Amino acid sequence: MKKLNIFILIIVLFSSCDQFEDDINVNPNAPSQASGTQLIANAMLYLPGLSSSPSAQFMSQYLSETQYVNASLYPQSSTSFYGLYQGPLMNLETVLNADDLSGNEGPIPNQLAVASILKSYFTWHITDRWGDVPYTEALQGADDFTPAYDTQESIYNDLLSVLTAADNQIVAGSISNDIIYNGDMSKWSKLANTIRMLMALRLSEVNPGLAQQEFTAAMQAGVMESNDDNLVFKHLADANNQNYWFSQIDLQGRDWWALSETLVEKMKPYGDPRLYVYGDPNRTDGDYTGLLFGDTEDFDTDKYALLGSAIHQQDAPVYLVTYAQALFAMAEAAKLGWISGGDIEAENYYNMAIENSMMQWNADVSGLDAFMMQADIAYDPARAIEQIATQRWIHLFMHGYEGWAEYRRTGYPDNMVSPGGADVPNRQIYIEAEQFNNTDNYNEAVQRQFGGSESLYGKVWWDAN
């Protein structure tokens, strides 16, 4: 009996020690698992990366490289989408598949709606850069390391449905940890419909019937109504959440990026006040001189207008989906006859778009009326699509991938250059690892889209130009 009691005592002691060790190794102030809104907030932190990179600006020829020019000459090299899948998309997928979301952080339908809207936005960005990409079989972790590539057409069709469902899912109440809209679900609703509307316009050349149907439905559901509704990532004057360009220019002292001649040619002759925000005057004579995109001979940065101080402040915001962008889309839709009003309404939306673009960028609007009356700026029914597209491209400054997508769709602006004989690419090349790690699906996607050999100049599905 004594031996049995001793044995029981030993078991209890060891069990108590194990429990004691577990207790002292747990921080009661640090959650062992991220909550739904924390995962959503972490995904939001990736939003600036959809815009803030030199390669994005090169695709739209907003900036010219002053030092390492070869990086801007459209080399036939691959680009990885892995970070977007492994980071924000995986976080959002975790939320969408969770069965234990807490209503303490806001209504669960709203958490799911925001996760769906953000997932749709990231996915739209990915497919517009690469074309067909993993979608329905993606984000399964160890359950599937080799997902099939969905066609861009099927991805678009599904995202349009997802955005519609997300908007309809929203209920009364806010969510916590919302670093974009501070839990205001009315703004998330307008964002969902605005993204849907912009996606629909992207289909104007490849499927105009569906494009008009989705465009008008999204517009009727309620899109952005002012610059207060903008999807904008607000950086802080803090090293932990600072603007990318501040880290490159102010901290590293790099004068590597000048305004491109392509951009300046469309702004300077008209005294466009946004030019004085986009760039700083050159150091030689205080003028705004653009650098020829891809110039490999002149590296005197004092001669050119470098990226504007307002753009690379530590807390400078990044604009992603904007009210002015929505207005430009509605101007084009009116001109195309998708919505009522014809040229009268198209002109109204066009003028409002330019005005709100100026205000978004904190440009001096004291001379706005005179600016709008200039021959090439004033709405001309015969050149309306060109004017709308060109002014939209100017507005999208520093959102290079979006400006590039609109250029591919419309062909404007009409002064893009071909550095070293290389035209503006039509897409980006899949990361090379896919050839070895996801061989069959990669080969099938390349064969389906490009006949077996991919390059920068194979076209994505909606690019009918």
From TrEMBL:
Protein known as: SusD/RagB family nutrient-binding outer membrane lipoprotein
Keywords: Lipoprotein
Domain of life according to the entry: Bacteria
Organism: Echinicola arenosa
Keyword Lipoprotein included in the entry's annotation: yes
Flavoprotein listed as a keyword: no
